[in-house]
Amino acid sequence: MPARYLNFRCSVPWLILLLQTLFLLLSLFDLTGVSDIYSPSEFYPEFQDVNHIVIFGFGFFLVVLRRYGFSSMGFNFLLVVLGVQCSVLVEECLVFLRAQQSGPGMNSLAKAMVSVTAVVISTGAVLGKANPVQLIVMTLVELIFFYVSRFINRIFLQVPEPLSLMHVHLFGAYFGLAVTSCFPDFPPALDKNRSSPTSELFSMLGTVFVWVFWPSFNSILADSKRKAVLNTYLALAVSAVGAFMLSALTSKDGKFRMAHIHSAALAGGVAVSLTAHSIQHPWIAMILGLLGSVVTILGSHCLQRCFHPALRLQDTSGVHFTFGLPAVLGAVAAVVLCVVEEGIEKQWNDLSSLGYLVFVDLGAFCQTICTALITGLITGLILNIKLFKAVHVSKYFDDQFYWEVSFKMISD
Q1: Distance between CA atoms of 258 and 354, rounded to whole angstroms?
Q2: Which is nearest to 49 in space by CA: 170, 173, 228, 172?
Q3: DSSP class of residue 392?
Q4: Of 217, 232, 244, 271, which is closest to residue 57 (Cα–Cα)?
Q5: On the CB side of 302, how many CA atoms lie within 13 Å of its CA?
Q6: Domain with 283 in it: what CATH number?
Q7: 28 domain-assigned
Q8: What is the average pLDDT score of the chain?
């Protein structure tokens, strides 16, 4: 045990110092001078909401394990503050290389914060297994690959930039699943990967906080902000109602399960993330919200009993059915709504144009999920080499390995 503690003392602080020094040096080259970072912007209210979601909301959202609360909240905060700096520099590098147009500095910061959401979602899949060094490396690698995926969608498939950014849920969920598949399985006999009433309450607090501010997340870069806010809120409301209904229907004793509410309450917001700005009728958003909660709760039953054991996947926070499946539903809904809208507008005469739209939307979806799975698998294999000193399975899901904790907290 002391050797392991000494290892993290000699690696984690110096890795953080190295990265922060690198970020400062890159900033000294005045690369951000390509665009005026201090130019006036109207993004601050939405940015503040998204900042609350990513740091506070998701921080508590990840507190699902009874002995991993410090690590869930603390590591999330560390990864976000490092990831945002990395994302801002990548954004400015793309502007410098003329790969995208310049914009206000707050715009760049907002896109960076949304991009970091992919890392937060992926962290939920490997929560309790990866040590801080592995998580930091995963953050940097995932952000780079996510920007590559966005670049491909934007340049080759002509996907608008706000929509390419909204693939963040899809990328984050399946990247995290691919990474966690490379880690050894946790023996069920150790019984540390379960929740407690306190951890579930904190996690639900994070869910409610994310729920309240999620309309700002979907509308921060949308052209029609009011429409995006209204459709997102309606979808969230219906998915939350559906979560309570389906929880009582699927439980053995007919009681509500906090895990169901925790997973399905956000499904509506994820399901309309690609279409919130373009949905013309509120009832469409409400149907998507209901379908999102259905996919989440029923998917959790099927995946946990059949799919995950067969593939030996241990999805710690359930990001697959909380974000992955609703994101797939949202991508399919975006294709259907686009075809119907364009077909009605052109009276179904220009089928070649409709076919092209379907090809672009499906291409963006397939490219995003394939890139996430392939790069996530490569990242997971890299993280398990001896250089990164992977934690022994017996030390999974335990704060005591990284934090100073009281005896009372350990016994709880």
Answers
A1: 43
A2: 228
A3: P
A4: 217
A5: 9
A6: 1.10.3430.10
A7: no
A8: 85
- Only one residue has tokens 């609350």, namely 52
Q: CB of 271 within 8 A of CB of 291? A: yes
Provide CB contacts within 8 A for 69, sequence distance 6+. 63, 199, 202, 399
Nearest-angstrom CA–CA distance, 17 and 389: 19
189 exposure class (CB count in 10 Å sphere: 0-12, 13-18, 19+): exposed
pTM for this predicted structure:
0.91
Q: Is 13 inside a domain boundary? A: no
In a domain, 36, yes or no: no
Interhelix angle 132-155/2-28, rounded to 10 degrees, is 40
Instruction: Name 339's Cβ contacts closer than 8 Å, sequence gap at least 6.
Output: 354, 357, 358
What percent of the residues of the chain are helix, what percent strand, and what percent coil, each to the nearest 5?
A: 75, 0, 25
Q: What is the pLDDT of residues 1-58, one digit of tens each?
A: 445 554 666 788 888 999 999 988 887 775 545 455 565 566 778 889 999 999 999 9
What residues make up the domain containing 264? 44-395
**CB atoms near residue 9 (< 10 Å):** 10
Number of domains in the chain: 1
Would you state the pLDDT for residue 173? 96
Structure tokens at 240: 């939350």
The first and second tokens of residue 70, run together, are 């410090």
In a domain, 89, yes or no: yes
C-alpha to C-alpha distance for 37 and 103, rounded to whole angstroms = 8
Q: What is the DSSP secondary structure assignment for residue 42, as one 8-state letter?
A: S
Angle at 265 between CA 192 and CA 272, to 5 degrees: 125
Structure tokens at 80: 């976000």
Contact indicator for 186, 393 with CB cutoff of 8 Å = yes
- Note whether 206 and 57 are within 8 A (CB): yes
Handedness of CA 100, 104, 105, 109 (dihedral sign): negative
In the 8-state DSSP scheme, what is residue 304? I
User: Distance between CA atoms of 12 and 308, rounded to whole angstroms?
Assistant: 32
CA 364, CA 38: separation in Å to the nearest integer? Answer: 33
Helix (H) or strand (E) holding 232: helix 225-250
Residue 344 has pLDDT above 90, yes or no: no
The alpha-helical segments, DSSP class H, found in 303-350 are 308-311, 319, 325-345
